[in-house]
């Protein structure tokens, strides 16, 4: 009988997968698409008083009323990823409700993006170059066998494994900002116009990750072409407006050894 521990299994996984290490920079702002929790909504209200005339940030009752309104409307009015510019929908009356979305944030280490978001961009890159149709089985090498983890300044050992932290050039946490997007969205009651305030990660922000992939179908050229296209897929919301585009500043690909015949 053989007994395997976590270290043994990880070693086997790495022996059967290749590695693509990427150090990246956002070329356009990445737009948060997460409905804020109460703490984030309170922060938004207190720091954006111009949108709440007469609100006193020290008046807890007023702050709570504004926060409750945001949270209630976020649940009642979900916003689609694609926002149609109002200029093409002039017949729609602009909504007066507050619509706020946020980026994911760790209480200590600041903003982060999900490893599943990067993996989704990689799958788009593979699809756009026709890899998943030209090489049957390559989708499994990417999706099922693939794994994205944080490295370098994007990684904090005591944070969750799916968190890829973003950082400035000097490694410090990024300062985000809110930006107003005007457009029309699909809602359960039909198309409506809306003013949406979105928390954004600024252009120039860095992040780093390692993508591991299966070895059955992929060769090094496949991986390089796929990652070149992935840069254009974008990460975050409003990607149809060229938000969340990034460049890979450096990339190191290590292909797995060929299986040894028994």
Brief sketch in words of this structure:
The protein is α+β, with helices and mostly antiparallel strands. It has 7 helices and 11 strands. A hairpin with a 3-residue loop joins strand 4 and strand 5.
Structural description of this entry:
This protein has 262 residues and is an alpha+beta fold. The protein folds into 2 domains: 18-33 and 104-177 and 202-254, 2-Layer Sandwich (Alpha-Beta Plaits); 35-78, no CATH class. The chain has 7 helices and 11 strands. It has helices at residues 6-15, 38-47, 60-76, 115-128, 131-134, 138-142, 220-233, and strands at residues 17-26, 30-31, 99-101, 104-106, 110-114, 147-150, 163-165, 177-187, 190-201, 206-214, 246-254. The strands form 3 sheets. It has a 4-stranded antiparallel β-sheet with strand order 6-10-1-11. Strands 2, 3, 8 and 9 form a 4-stranded mixed β-sheet that branches. The chain has a 3-stranded antiparallel β-sheet with strand order 4-5-7. The protein is globular, with a radius of gyration of 21 Å. Mean pLDDT is 79; it is low at 74-97.
Order of helices and strands: HEEHHEEEHHHEEEEEHE
- Using only C-alpha atoms, the radius of gyration works out to 21 Å
Largest beta-sheet characterization: 4 strands, antiparallel
The CATH topology assignment of the largest domain is Alpha-Beta Plaits
């Amino acid at each position: 009988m053989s007994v395997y521990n976590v270290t043994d299994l990880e070693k086997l996984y790495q022996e059967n997968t290749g590695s693509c290490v990427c150090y990246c920079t956002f070329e356009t702002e990445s737009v948060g698409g997460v409905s804020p929790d109460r703490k984030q909504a309170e922060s938004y209200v207190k720091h954006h008083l111009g949108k709440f005339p007469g609100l006193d940030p020290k008046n807890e009752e007023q702050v709570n009323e504004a926060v409750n309104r945001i949270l209630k409307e976020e649940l009642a009015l979900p916003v689609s990823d694609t926002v149609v510019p109002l200029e093409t929908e002039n017949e729609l009356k602009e909504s007066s409700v507050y619509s706020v979305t946020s980026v994911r944030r760790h209480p200590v280490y600041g903003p982060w993006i999900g490893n599943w978001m990067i993996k989704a961009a990689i799958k788009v890159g593979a699809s756009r170059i026709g890899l998943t149709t030209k090489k049957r089985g390559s989708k499994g090498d990417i999706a099922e066998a693939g794994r994205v983890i944080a490295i370098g300044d994007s990684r904090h050992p005591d944070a969750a494994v799916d968190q890829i932290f973003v950082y400035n050039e000097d490694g410090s946490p990024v300062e985000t900002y809110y930006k107003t997007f005007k457009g029309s969205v699909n809602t359960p009651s039909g198309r409506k116009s809306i003013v949406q305030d979105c928390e954004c990660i600024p252009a120039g922000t860095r992040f780093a990750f390692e993508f591991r992939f299966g070895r059955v179908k992929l060769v090094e050229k496949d991986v390089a072409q796929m990652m070149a296209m992935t840069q254009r897929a974008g990460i975050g919301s409003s990607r149809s407006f060229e938000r969340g585009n990034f460049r890979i500043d450096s990339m190191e690909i290590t292909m797995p050894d060929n299986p040894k015949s028994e």
